[in-house]
Amino acid sequence: MARSALKIGILIPRSGPAGIWAPSCEASALLAASEINAAGGIRGREVELVLRDTGASDRSAVDAALAIVDLDAVDCIVAMVPSSARQPIRNATRGRIPFLYTPQFEGAESDPGIITIGETAQELLKPGIDWLASEKRASRFFLLGNDYLWPQRSMAEARRLIGDGGGHVVGEMEVPFGLEDHDRVLSRIRRSKPHVVLSWLLGHEAILFNRAFAASGLAAGILRFSTAIDETILYGIGADCTENLYVSSAYFSNLRSRNNDAFLEKYHQQFGTSPAPPNAFGESLYEGVHCLSGLAEAADSLRSSDIVRKLGRSAQKRTARGFETNVATGNRHPIHIAAVDGFDFRVIANR
Description:
- By secondary structure, the chain is of the alpha/beta class.
- Helices cover 39% and strands 20% of the residues.
- It has a seven-stranded mixed beta sheet, sandwiched between helices.
């Protein structure tokens, strides 16, 4: 008798600021599932993905999580949602099934029922701030982010790192979602005279700000640095609006490595020559599905407590990040610092 499929619930927003990443996230998760099935599935069971749209709010994310657990009867959840939705999803599902959270995040997640596999703010910020100080002689920083958990805690970490390095935070703003008139923000930046604007603007919010920043003429004299601008955001900003823009990330699609070359080859084989752009947020879903597979195989179980104990003590078979072919589940990867050159990321340092 054939065993039933193992249902993996994929939670991603198709609307709101983070909705811009949905096509890449869906494609990356589907690719991971097809690779796992080609290798025999998870614990001998074929993988079936169940995708749910988490919408633009924490409330809609909770509703999607409850639906995917209670109605779709998934065996586990892999989610790429804003940080503010992470704990509400965990509270709503009450640890009934494993919950993997894939994107970069602010760090300091202590809930044992949430498996985080993305880079933390400290991991992404420290190399960038150190590089800006040593290579660009930057010491004056302006911090800008949306008004919610990820920017707030990341800005706190940035303040600490900047102070430890002898620099100064000369201005700071939290802005609401949906801000279209950036005149007040740009005026504050101009008066503060920073060397660098560090930003934590989610998805589409980053596109609007960076266009306005370039149009204001500030880009010629003030550097911009972000940990959350990827290929999709870059296409939205436009090549003419990226002067003096720098990014740190564990993944860029143009990085040459055995891991990424294999990922991109299969990505294009499955989705054609013009698919949704591969990027760090989409790739995190690819990592998440493969990480879950590695954990479940090592634990020989789908119980949350059994899987958590295998984090870092088991191997996942596929990754697009880093340079090691056999990586521990949830392993950390090198951080790359890139200068934006038109629509391309030109890696200038590895830390």
